Amino acid sequence: MTLGKILISRRSYIYGLLFVAVSIVVVIISIKKVVSRQAPTQQVDNQAVVIPVEVVKAQYSEETNDILVTTGKTLAYETHAVKVNTTGRIKELDLPIGIYVKKGDILAVLDTTQIDYLIELANEEYRLKEKKANAMKQLLDKNLIRYTEYVNHNIEYLDAKQKYYTLLDEKTNHYVVAPLSGIVERKLVTVGELVTQKDKIVVLYDIHIIKVAFGLDESDYQKFKSAGGSYVNIYIPALNLALKLSDFKTSEIAQDKNHSVYIEALIPNDDNSIMPGLFVNVNVIFNGNKQRIKLPNSAIFFDSYYYVYVIENNTAKKVRIEIGDSDSQSVEVVSGIKPNDQVVISGKKGLHDGVKVLIEDETTHSTIRNSS
Question: What are phi and psi of 123, to 5 degrees?
Fold first, then answer.
């Protein structure tokens, strides 16, 4: 073999080795690229998909009542017209309107000139008859007079005594006293005016309890009457006073052409801080005794029926529900879920029945609905 042929043979061998090496490198690189492309898919296939969600814990609403907004005014618990018990002229009537008086306080005094004169005469006669009766008793003890003579004088003495004390009692009728504690609402007579027995002279307001009076139409009244536990929230602007009242006096008689029913809520007023005639804002709370779960609108799905996703053991469960009342923010759930269920409100992308989830945030949803 010549030298030239030997060199050509070696060169071909080297080229062959280089070709094989390059081919191996190309194959390895191709395999790595394929593996790198397939690895994420294999990882996803081998690991469950987890969807982050926010949930709300279903609870009964804090208030399940309907509210009717109206107005009213404060009234005295009772109005009492004070009468005189005898005939005479008003001598004293120094009672400013609105003044508070206690039971037994003197409200007015009638002129006592005539009764004082009669009492003076009766007292003189009574004392004189008493002396004669005592003198006759001494004579009787000495057997100087008959017993019948003594008895006659003693009867005259007792009659004079009774007349005297009767006039004293009658004088007390000239002093008109308060039959109860309260405020003077108005005076019906003036000083110097002649009054006769049973004439009214003063009107008193009993304010140890204050009534808040307001009206309801008949349908609302029936609702108020039938709903156990109903109550009233009031606000008196003049006193900046807010109260919750649950003690009522009601009348089922229509009071006007609108067929409204008169209702009075009662306020204890032992300190006399609340006066009659004040304007009152009234919220009538109708307690329907119905517990309701309310959810944000974002929790509700619809696909021929309403449903939500409830989370159990970090897994989404599709639950069919029935809904009731709704507003711009929330929906009443009548059936399908129960209190403390975790309901998805956001993170719905990719959500379906049975998917694993990661709870990122949990809130408590409780809605108060006011309706008028």
Answer: -70, -40
